[in-house]
Amino acid sequence: MKKTLLTLSLIFFSVVAFSQASVSLGIKAGANFANTNISGSESITSFHGGAYGLIKLANIGIQPEMLFSKQGASFSTADVDLSYLNVPVMVKFYLPMGLNLQAGPQFGILTKAESGSVDVKDAYKSSDISAALGAGWDAPFGLQFTARYVLGLSDINDSGAGDEVKNRTFQLSIGYSLFKLGK
Q1: What is the model's pTM?
Q2: With 37 labelled, which of 96, 135, 142, 183 sits at a CA distance of 20 to 30 A?
Q3: Burial of 29 (0-12, 13-18, 19+ CB in 10 A)
Q4: What is the rounded distance in angstroms from the CA atom of residue 72 to the CA atom of residue 105?
Q5: 141: in domain
Q6: pLDDT tens for each residue of 6-52
Q7: What CATH number did the domain enclosing 163 receive?
């Protein structure tokens, strides 16, 4: 097993070192403007943060991320605060000067749900599947600036009554590449 892992690691680093590919790891954080599809709900402002990896070959990149994300909505009776561990996997199409368009799926795991100070986690499903679309700029000095809209595809209502509930989140974030290998 160790020999196989070592061999695969050497092949990976050789391909990156002698090709046009690059690999980077970084951190990112930013603001969430979250809501749901329920009429009468209003947006809440919260945050997201975590780590990303980027594998870039020519004008296409794959950027998996692991983010802690506060989402939810504000209702006339109370705010609903949802905390997720989200894993978006973005495909980035690069334009000139580091500008890029992004699209991909996002998989979320509900870690906490509160309405006021009451635990309402049982009223929500433990997972969420979304589609993410966005645009960004990968600056030459390791910074990333991103605007992204995350559209919930799955119904997160697990109460057995009421309408379908789907997350909607607009994100603005800044990231910084801590490590880069390749071009």
Answers
A1: 0.85
A2: 135
A3: middle
A4: 19
A5: yes
A6: 776 666 666 555 567 899 999 999 999 999 999 889 999 999 999 99
A7: 2.40.160.20
